[in-house]
Amino acid sequence: MGSTLADSDAVTVPDPLATYRTDLDRDGYAIVRDAFDADTAAALHADVERLERELGIGPGTNGFEGRSTHRVYNLLAHGELYRQIPVHPVVLPLMHHLLGDGPLVSSLSSITIGPGEVAQPIHADDQVLPMPKPHRAITANSMWAITDFTEANGATRIIPGTHLADDSPVYGQHYDSICAEMPAGSILVWHGSLWHGGGANGTERRRMGIAMNYCAGWIRQQENQQLGLPLELVRTFDPTLQELCGFGVYRGLVGHIDRRTPADVLLGDDRGHRMLWDRS
Length: 280
Fold this sequence. Notes:
- One of its GO terms (molecular function) is metal ion binding.
- InterPro entries: Phytyl_CoA_dOase-like.
- By secondary structure, the chain is α+β, with helices and mostly antiparallel strands.
- The chain folds into two domains: about 15-215, q2cbj1_9rhob like domain (Jelly Rolls, Sandwich), CATH 2.60.120; about 230-280, no CATH class.
- It is built from seven helices and nine strands, in the order αβαβαβββββββαααα.
- It has helices spanning about 20-25, 40-55, 90-100, 225-230, 230-235, 240-245, 260-265; strands at about 30, 70, 105-115, 140-145, 155-160, 180, 185-190, 195, 205-215.
- The strands form two sheets. Strands 1-7-4-9-3-2 form a six-stranded antiparallel β-sheet.
- It is globular, with a radius of gyration of 20 Å.
């Protein structure tokens, strides 16, 4: 009879995401450094500037979106370059940790804070949702640093641990916060209940980031992916990205069309899905 490896002799494989998960659970945020390379940052930077020009994007007109901040929404509809963002190999598993199985793309947009912008009011991304706090994450977001994020140029400001608070911040009220500085190529990930806000830009250069926001599979998405993305475009997405955009069925039940997945009905892609009821 062959020998077996005793439990005490088992090799422990390091978990590369363990530190990030610990940070998220304890502090409500984590920073993934060297998450994407300089060529990717340069390509995203150039393309966001192209979209701003071609779409005629002007600065925001309110205190939340910013009056010196340019935002391009619905980026998945604007080119293949953006398909890599929702499926990032580190960020997506962290979203599964926070949101459980079947998370969705809630919104994907660029946020470019221009010179002279003032700090955004501190807020929680889930505070419009009518649920008592604290609660497990139902939204969770990430910010890709396309340029360096510094205190001087408007890096995201955060209040660690507030994802465990029993309330949301009062909009417009001052709160002491810290600056989530990070070099270009980093990604800030945070629990949707974390109190945070964009910083003020006191420099002469623009601070560009891409906000990749997710939600639990049973929550309505911030940007309506099913209506905002042409079906002929979604057909070219890989299956993981299609499901992230809401063309699957959550836990075999939520989001079906006559017992079929949206991918089957709308995209003509039958993957042999079985409803929850059929599994008993």
